[in-house]
Amino acid sequence: MISYTTVGTNNMEAAKKFYSALLADLGATEQMNLEDRFVMYGDGKGPMFALARPYDGQPASVGNGVMIALAAKDPAQVKSLYDKAISLGAKDEGPAGPRMDGRFSCGYVRDLDGNKLNFFCMGS
Asked: What is the rounded distance in angstroms from the CA atom of residue 21 to the CA atom of residue 110?
């Protein structure tokens, strides 16, 4: 049902550098680039992820309670994505590891603009 998700950015070049490196580990590449306004990433098989400067010209801001969950293939990839995001400048919001009695493995970060991401897989 979801076609793509968008997060706002106030620094498109920094955001593109962060997400191009991070999403490459999930097989995603840049699928669309509307100059310095909108960039979309995908793997050609499913939902996509986009960066955008807000259309209204106001600064991008983080929605309280808003989070984007990116599916990993296994707990090792959850940890790898979490570690890579941190190395690219993301802030920790909950270290990678098992949750809910091991039924869910995830790691939480905030990107360079403060958007919350969750790398996850079911099982541990």
From this structure: 15
